Amino acid sequence: ISALNASALSIPVGGSVNFSVDAADPDGDVLAYHFSYSDGAFGDNQPFHSRVFNNAGNFVVTCEVSDMKGG
Question: Model pTM?
Answer without folding.
Answer: 0.87
